[in-house]
Write a structure and sequence with these properties.
- The chain has 242 residues and is an alpha+beta fold.
- The protein contains four helices and nine strands, in the order E-H-H-E-E-H-E-E-H-E-E-E-E.
- The strands form four sheets. Strands 5-4-9 form a three-stranded antiparallel beta sheet, with helices on one face. Strands 1-2 form a two-stranded antiparallel ribbon. It has a two-stranded antiparallel ribbon with strand order 3-6.
- It is elongated.
């Protein structure tokens, strides 16, 4: 900021108050209308001249003083240095509180009571259980004097049409070992696969067709009566040639 110094100067007054009073007294003494108007006009002219003189003289004085005014460059003092933050408080060593030791539990001695006297009656004697007699063994099968014989060749019992379609598509072939139970009428009552061909379709089809188509001359005992018998053999599935 710039600050200037002004020297106070006495300003002239436009007119004195005594002069105004004398003028008003003169007006009061002369009651005529013309004199009163002339006095008022004279006072107005005097006031105007004084006001013009006052304003003109004050303007010239201010202008001269402004030229002589010296400008002082007052430098603002530098800002104070920033306050340094207070140093962090020193870490106080942690004081571990002593462990809380629980007092040992109060162990009361067990109250020893005399065991009650229990009288157990003597158990009654166990009944004697006799094991049931074992069943009699089944009668031995009569030995066949003449074994059951197949009527024709098993290989001729199956044709190309009997070949399982899935086995044909997959080029599956093999030999099936089987056991046939033969009744007294020479028909097959049961078929069991004893060795697999490696393909379930071939094994199952062989047993199904043998049970349905195979015929036997029934076995006979020593007295010549027909008896049941079994027959074991093998059957080979071969992919038919075109």
């Amino acid at each position: 900021m710039f600050r200037g110094h002004l020297t106070p100067i006495a300003m002239p007054q436009p007119f004195d108050s005594t002069e105004w009073l004398s003028l008003m007294a003169y007006v009061d003494q002369n009651q005529s209308k013309e004199k009163t108007i002339a006095a008022v006009i004279t006072a107005i002219l005097i006031a105007a001249v004084g006001y013009a003189f006052y304003t003109g003289l004050a303007f010239n004085i201010v202008k001269k003083v402004a030229k002589q005014m010296t400008v002082l460059d007052i430098k603002e003092p530098p800002p104070p240095p920033p306050k340094q933050p207070p140093p962090p408080p020193k870490e106080q060593p942690k004081v571990e509180s002593p462990p809380i030791v629980t007092p040992p539990p109060i162990v009361q001695p067990p109250v020893v009571t005399a065991p009650p006297i229990v009288t157990t009656p003597n158990p009654p004697p166990a009944p004697i259980i006799q094991a049931p007699p074992s069943p009699a063994p089944p009668p031995p099968k009569p030995s066949a004097a003449v074994r059951a014989k197949p009527r024709g060749s098993f290989q001729s019992l199956m044709s190309t049409d009997d070949y399982p379609p899935s086995a044909l598509r997959n080029n599956e072939a093999g030999t099936v070992g089987f056991k046939l139970d033969v009744g007294t009428d020479g028909r097959v009552t049961n078929c069991t696969v004893t060795s697999s061909s490696g393909f379930a379709d071939l094994d199952q089809t062989a047993c199904r067709l043998l049970t349905k188509r195979a015929r036997f001359t029934p076995a006979k005992d020593a007295g010549g009566a027909a008896i049941g018998d079994s027959f074991s053999s093998r059957f080979t599935w071969q992919i038919p040639k075109d």
